[in-house]
Amino acid sequence: MLSNIILASKSKVRKDILEDNNISCEVKPSNIDEDSVKESLISKNASPEIISKNLAELKANKISSKIEERIVLGADSVIDLSGELISKPSDRKEAMEILKKLNGREHYLISSVCISKNGSMIWNYTDKAKLKMKNFSEKELEQYLSKISDKALYAYNVYQIEGEGRNLFSEINGDKNTIMGLPVKKIKEYLKEIQ
Number of structural domains, the chain? Predict the structure, then answer.
């Protein structure tokens, strides 16, 4: 078991991925205002990848500045649809709009991670997965959404690749853990180097 790190996220999926990979973690959510950060970066024409990286770093730095000498992991995932940033939905209506946008199209799921210590980033990594959604009728999309609980929908975006969401796609090119929000293979490699 790799030594205890702090996960600056309340994501149960990320915590489970770490623990499934023998990385023990303590959860301390950063609670940063992601929407205002995204708006600010979008106004400066930042790409979805830059936005994801910035959010991961802000989360990790915020917690690590309060807890000295501990390793803090921040993470963020976004969807890049031809340069447009797609964030988690705030309600079912918005979830449906996102599914309609992705319907029949290719997009990237970008997951960024940052490890900080004493308030500064010491390592970061970003991975992308390319997905192509099948073509669905509006009724089929409504049926899919009806199977997803509110908790899952707002926590993990509009598709859960490990569950019902797998059936939405004709193509998935990339690491499953990246799609679920945490490219854990690279995190493990880095933690082994420094411990």
Answer: 1
Cβ atoms < 10 Å from Cβ of 114:
26
Residue 187 backbone zone (phi > 0: left; psi -120 to 50: alpha; other: beta): alpha
The number of residues making up the chain comes to 195
CB atoms within 10 A of CB 161: 22
3 state DSSP class of 25: strand
C-alpha to C-alpha distance for 23 and 192, rounded to whole angstroms = 10
Residue 82, pLDDT above cutoff 70: yes
What is the predicted pLDDT for the residue at 1?
Answer: 53
- The domain spanning residue 155 has which CATH number? 3.90.950.10
Residue type, 38: K
The pLDDT value recorded for residue 19 is 93
SS3 101: helix
The range of the structural domain enclosing residue 174 comes to 2-194
Catalytic residues: 76
Q: Give me the amino acid identity at 65.
A: S
Residue 93 has pLDDT above 60, yes or no: yes
